[in-house]
Model the fold of this input.
Amino acid sequence: MKAMIDYLQEGGLEASKIVLITPPPIYGEGWKKHCQTTYGVAQNRTNANTGLYAKACCTVAKDLGIEVLDIYTIMQQEPKWERYLLDGLHLSPDGNQFLGEQLWKMLEPKTRDMPMQLPDWKDVDPNNPEEALLK
Done:
């Protein structure tokens, strides 16, 4: 993980522009059922191991002064958090929405004062996008 961050920073990206996101939790029963039903194999991931990886992600972020979105912890604080997982592992549409909302809470304060580089999508004519985009 540190090597990935080093790579980004060596390419000129400042630490303040990097956000790490932990993996979401795993709903063991759902993932176990999916593994057995879909692949005919035993469950190959656990929430406990995912928690260790999430903790390592948070530690690396802290050590390097990088912001982290600990979706692993935040999601499990929600009632019935399992609904955020499609098959016990991958995010469902509700899970994607939840992640987006949490990420936006982190990014919005950093981006609210940035100037618009392109026109608002509502101002672009789909039949003639060049008119708005090439001004």
